[in-house]
């Protein structure tokens, strides 16, 4: 398998024509079924050849639906790695499982598209990055908004100086999570900060083009909710140049998602800002000199777009953005938020330099997909 994956990765641009990267989907929960698996077919450079799941009914129905020939249980993960039936894996497991499954795949020479957050500690992130460097396999963290047109348009406008020097950022992202969902258990790293926080955090970092230097946070735990962590958390980030970013994430409030970046001479407001799926078309309101312009964008298949990009990187031998470095950049802030909640004290962050960032030229505009019937899976809110 390692040799086959390496051969695919080393193909040049011309070699990418007609090539398809073979994927194994590892974890067949809501996000994989509702967004990733139905998106594969129209990427033009990807196909599914294996499925790893612990659910017999998921294995039966999904393998038939998508024509997946090879099915394995979690206990057979090593057998899957040895079977040479995929070039890459899409890992959509609970956060605390990312480290072990990603490293095993990378050590086997498989490329890895890993859902965010990358892992549950900086140490785990570094270990995953080290495994990728050692094997030469490609590693990309699944920041789908790095390829979403509205998100990239906002970043391009800020970089072009349309709102002047960006001064502060604010955002909210909330959803209701059912007690039966795996997110309702397993402590902080299953909670709203690691699960939803990467969206406003990554937006602030990308729009400012900088890394935070200090973090503070306040959280609440309501007795009426079933969580063993703060169900709602408000975070403040200090950036170089006396800039601030604030965001609130919650598992216990009605669905909401928006952000605003305010500069010295204008602002950009995005709503919706972080969501995906049928009926979700991201849009911007850009205000300059007291005049507001609405900029609407069509619905796009965000998961198909990121997959199409990653497969192109694998086929053409390019290093993907967002890489493991991007995943680490967010996880180190998430870990600092956890410390701030535990201590009640602001947390200083060591300087961090990101070598790459979102590239507006990589915007993907694949048409929206329909969500197929789910098998033993549900959205976090149980819908």
UniProtKB/TrEMBL annotation:
Recorded GO MF terms: nucleotide binding; oxidoreductase activity
Keywords: Oxidoreductase
Keyword Oxidoreductase: yes
SUPFAM superfamilies linked: Glyceraldehyde-3-phosphate dehydrogenase-like, C-terminal domain, NAD(P)-binding Rossmann-fold domains
Domain Gfo/Idh/MocA-like oxidoreductase N-terminal: 21-143
InterPro entries: Gfo/Idh/MocA-like_OxRdtase_N (IPR000683), Gfo/Idh/MocA_oxidrdct_glycsds (IPR050463), GFO_IDH_MocA-like_dom (IPR055170), Glc-Fru_OxRdtase_bac (IPR008354), NAD(P)-bd_dom_sf (IPR036291)
GFO/IDH/MocA-like oxidoreductase domain location: 155-268
Database matches in Pfam families: GFO_IDH_MocA (PF01408), GFO_IDH_MocA_C3 (PF22725)
Annotated stretches, region: Disordered: 345-383
The protein, known as: Predicted dehydrogenase
Species this chain originates from: Chitinasiproducens palmae
């Amino acid at each position: 398998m390692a040799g086959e994956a390496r051969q695919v990765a080393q193909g040049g641009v011309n070699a990418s024509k007609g090539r398809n990267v073979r994927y194994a989907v590892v974890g067949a929960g809501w996000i994989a079924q509702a967004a990733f698996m139905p998106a594969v077919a129209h990427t033009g450079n990807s196909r599914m050849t294996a499925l790893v799941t612990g659910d017999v009914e998921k294995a039966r129905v999904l393998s038939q639906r998508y024509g997946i020939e090879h099915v394995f249980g979690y206990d057979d993960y090593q057998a899957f790695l040895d079977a040479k039936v995929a070039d890459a894996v899409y890992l959509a497991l609970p956060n605390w499982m990312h480290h072990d499954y990603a490293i095993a795949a990378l050590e086997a020479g498989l490329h890895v598209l890993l859902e965010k957050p990358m892992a549950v500690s900086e140490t785990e992130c570094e270990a995953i990055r080290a495994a990728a460097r050692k094997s030469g396999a490609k590693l990309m963290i699944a920041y789908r908004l790095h390829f979403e047109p509205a998100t990239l348009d906002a970043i391009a406008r800020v970089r072009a100086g349309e709102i002047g020097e960006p001064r502060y950022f604010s955002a909210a992202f909330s959803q209701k999570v059912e007690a039966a969902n795996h997110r309702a258990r397993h402590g902080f790293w299953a909670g709203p900060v690691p699960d939803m926080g990467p969206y406003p955090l990554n937006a602030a970092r990308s729009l400012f083009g900088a890394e935070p230097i200090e973090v503070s946070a306040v959280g609440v735990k309501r007795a009426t909710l079933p969580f063993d962590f703060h169900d709602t958390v408000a975070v403040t980030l200090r950036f170089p140049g006396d800039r601030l970013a604030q965001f609130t994430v919650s598992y216990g409030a009605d669905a909401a998602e928006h952000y605003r970046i305010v500069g010295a001479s204008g602002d950009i407001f995005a709503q919706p800002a972080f969501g995906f799926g049928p009926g979700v078309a991201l849009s911007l309101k850009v205000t300059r000199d007291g005049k507001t312009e609405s900029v609407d964008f069509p619905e796009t298949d965000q998961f198909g777009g990121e997959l199409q990009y990653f497969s192109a990187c694998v086929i053409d031998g390019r290093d993907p953005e967002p890489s493991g470095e991007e995943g680490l950049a967010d996880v180190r802030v998430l870990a600092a938020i956890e410390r701030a909640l535990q201590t009640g004290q602001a947390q200083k962050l060591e300087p961090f330099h990101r070598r790459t960032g979102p590239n507006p030229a990589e915007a993907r505009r694949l048409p929206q997909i329909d969500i197929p019937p789910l098998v033993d899976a549900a959205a976090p809110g149980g819908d």
